[in-house]
Amino acid sequence: MKTSLTSFRTWACACLLGALPLSASAATVINEAFTSSPAANFTVVSGGTWAVSSGRYVLSVPANGTIMGNLTRHNTSVSGDYTLTTTLRITGTSALWNDAAVVFNYVDASNYYFASFNEANDGLTNGIFKVQAGVQTELADFSALSTADTDYAIEVTRAGSSITVKRNGTTLGTASDATFAGGYVGYGSKNDGAQFDNLLVNTAGGDVTAPSAPSGLLGVAASSSQINLSWNASTDNVGVTGYNVYRGGSLLTSVTGTSHSDTGLTASTSYTYKVKARDAANNLSADSNSVTVNTLSSSGVPVEVSSFGPNGTHWPSVLATPFLYDNSVPNIVNVACSWSAISSAISTLTPAQVSAGVLIRVAPGDLPGNGSGSGSTPVLQNLGSTSWTKRVTIAPRDGYGTVTIGISGSIGARIHNVNNVCFAGFIAYSLRPSACNNSAIAWTKIVNWLGVSGSTNMASSNMEFVEVVLPEYSVRDTDSAQASSSTNGALSNFQFIGCYIAPRYRSNGSAHTDTFQFFGDSAYSNMTFKDTAIFASSNCAIQTGGLNGLELRHCYIAAQGPALSRYPFPSGYTPPNSLDVTKTFNGGGTNFKAYDSIFIGRMPYSTSPWTLVSNTVVTEAVALAPGGTGSWTVNASLTSTVPDDFGVTLPTDAYLNSIWQ
């Protein structure tokens, strides 16, 4: 796979195959991307096996030489001033003196320059050297060493007698020598294996400035056989003419715009992409960020990819749930944008229809709310059945965000005793599902508040909240999200998967704000968070109350510096207490388990609830419950990190549109 910083397509075959020197006024004289085998434009001078493999020029089974035991040169001669760029990787043994070299102004096997890169500095490598009449002379020494199995972007510039060598944009050495004014360029090694890629030689007098790298590359699985890519435009000193799209390290296509749809793919398969910008002189930019996207399964449900927060691959799974964009669902019902139309569509379903699959699609508009309090009049109630073998999915007909709930009036909605139903693809002001069982909320942004609860004499269980996002923080004396039991209305077996919840900062010292709080008048038990990111509010990130049974699987829970780096105190705000935003967890509880997670901040439990810990990092040591198994990894330096260090993406509207539409 190509993983270089700068990549270029082969162009103008006649130019590349010709052996005559090109004039100094030409812009690009060599442009090798090693996309085909053999390397027809190279002549092997000495050494082991030189061959194109996986899009790279590879030296294997290297010979041992006194100067350059392995050497190959390009067939195009270069004269005058020029800049050479390439990617170099040392692939030596476990010894600490492995080397690889870029050869330039090669006249013959006894006369040339080379820039050598080594893991050690032995006087015969790791510098700029001249070989004249078979005698090696060091022109400049490199104090910086290189590391095997690491890609380096190398640049060699000839300007008159001046020679400058850079690695990853940093100058390693300069020299002045005019012995060889022209010749060939190539690669070499004293006695170790190496890989090379993306050889570009630009002469003076042309455009040698590459465009900026494309940014913001995003990929979205549109179906089981199509992935849609988009990215931000690059800039160039002259002008960008197009973009090269790479899949799995190989050139896929060239386009003139900032998007591409890759079709004909295999269902439930992972594909990795990157993009490079191109200008009229065929200068190519550095790589964009890379993205890995899974095509949907044949049923349309995404293939889950682990993350901290939403990424458009998580979907409810406790009970079979039709995917919101699956047009092959046997029973598709289109309804107007009204609660009465939705209620009527659910109430008229038969068990046979539900078993076959039902997708209710709502026309664009705003569904008004009546409030999201525990006593608010429900917008939907007493619908569905826990005896159904599948969920019914309710989603916007025209895609995520085209139907809102309570946004126009900034008032939330309560959904009461609605069972085996999934609401997906909405934007809601506030939302409270109460006394619901086997239902789900998925791919939904909530602007203000989320509350899930039981009701008097009515329990709530087996709920799934999948990629539910509360990304906006504020100074407000309420929690961001709550789960509350009621009198004889217990909560049990909830799952929060791929969620993201921003904090609330209290306005005064007597207020109490948590990001997620468990509490209530009856039991609440067996709660699971997975692939979820939660940032601490004034009191803590998760207030566990008296929770019995908590599992966190691959979660990012942050307080202190990382939380404040993403959600800083507003201008003019002073926290009421110096301990505000320092706790990840608070409260009580029993039988807590943590797997593959990161917890940054304090956990001041008087009695530890942690019974099992596996592969989880914390910033301060925390005791386990008596008989608990496993151990924490303590790394206090995580308080100086930022969420981006761990791939915790800020779920902006643009990002949510890209993964959910």
Automatic annotation (TrEMBL):
Residue ranges annotated for the Fibronectin type-III domain, each copy included: 213-298
Pfam families listed in its UniProt record: fn3
Signal peptide location: 1-26
Domain of life per record: Bacteria
Database matches in InterPro entries: FN3_dom, FN3_sf, Ig-like_fold
Gene3D superfamilies per UniProt: Exo-inulinase, domain 1, Immunoglobulins
UniProt keyword list: Signal
PROSITE patterns noted in UniProt: FN3 (PS50853)
Family annotation (SUPFAM superfamilies): Fibronectin type III
Name of the molecule in the record: Fibronectin type-III domain-containing protein
Organism: Nibricoccus aquaticus
